[in-house]
Every structure is written in structure tokens, then in C-alpha cells.
Design brief:
Elements (H helix, E strand, L loop, with lengths): L1 H15 L8 E3 L20 E10 L2 E12 L24 E7 L5 E8 L2 E7 L6 H15 L8 E5 L5 E7 L2 E7 L6 E7 L6 E9 L2 E9 L4 E9 L2
Antiparallel strand pairs: 1-7, 2-3, 2-13, 3-4, 4-5, 5-6, 7-8, 8-9, 9-10, 10-11, 11-12, 12-13
Length: about 230
Amino acid sequence: MRCLCCISILFLLAVGCVSIKPLHVTRDTLHLTRRGLPVTKYHPPATIHLFKASLHLKKHHITGLLVIKRMETPPFSGNTPPPTPPQTGRGDCPAVYRIVFMNEVGMTFFDMEMKTDSFTVISCFESLNKQALVKILETDFRMLVGMDSLNTGKVFRQKGTNRMVVSGTAGKYKIWQTFSSSGDTLYTTAAKSTIADPVIIDYNNYAKGVPLKITISNPFIGMKLSLRKLASD
């Protein structure tokens, strides 16, 4: 029995060591750093974004609508503490987002609030309201809205595609981002803070500078969230 437990632990550790590094990359000696060049990518909403969404987790599959809404930061008054100031590597403002996933008739699967320094569950289906899963969802949505964004880093080239790949850290996250060969369009963001929360986000079907399809994959638990953009600000 003890041997079986050891094998199980080793298996979980092996599965957990999911690499987020893109394949076949070598250091680009011509572009040692990438500093704030204009990039076509997904930008978080000024007010609200609406997506058709489908969530796959092992044998479970749910579909509905995902809403990402930027909330107004309340002004400082009385004994209320001021909003959290922006942090290095965490975007350009202390934004607050509500993220709601619901079915077409309005039943809520989860409703969460994300700030620069917190991630709060407002409501959630009991089967989804697990601490480990919530931490993974936090990583997913922080990477999606760029609250922990990668502004500079080491530059690589991907063999075969010649795509530009940038690696660095932001906050507690190790991040790899894959761009077009010229570096002006973001195709993939991969990140993790622990062995349990790696995420890979693919941006597809760009139209007028906006990705109409986004796929968020969590290889450690086999979860995939597919988003198709319906409406925006």
C-alpha cells in the first residue's frame, strides 16, 4: 500500500510538471529584449465583453454565456480605504472585473470578482467551488485580461514558424508569449505560478485587431474553456 501511495504521488508530480515553454525555440540574438512595441491582441473591456462559452472538464461539459465586466472603482471617501494602486507588471490601472458564466436562461455557474490583489467567489456551483479550481480560474482570467502582463523579457525564435517568443515574469507568474514573426500580433500566452495552475491561451480569428475566438486550456486538470466573442463595449 505504501508503495502504491508513493507511485501515485510520483505520478501526480510528473503530470503536474507541465511545461508551458513553446517547442523548438532558440535565443534571438538580434532582439535581446522587447520593450513596449504596439501589439494586436485581446484587450480587456472598457465596460463589458460577452462571449459564447463552452467549458469541458473531464467528462463534464457545460455551455452558456461568459460576461467580463469592468466595474467602476469607487471614489475614496470617509473611512473607506482608497483603491489598490497599480503594481509593477500588473496593468496600468487598479481595475476591478466581474466575471460571470451562466447558461442561456440566466442560471449562474460562477460569479467572481477580480482585483489586482484579490480574487473573490461571489457565487458558484458547488461542484465547481473547489479551492484548487478557483486558483486555476484566477490564473486563467488574470492572464486573459492582462492584469499580470508581460511587458519585457528575453526574446526567442521558434524553429519552423519563425514566430517571436518572449519569456519573463510578472508578479508570481512565469510567462511565455508567442507572437507573429514581426512581433506585432499575439497568438498564445502560457503561464503558471505553481505546478498545478499552468494555462495556455490561444487567440484566433483576428478581425479588425480583435481575436474572435479564444481558447483557454489547463493541461494539469484537463480543462478547456472555449470563447467566441459576441459583443463588446
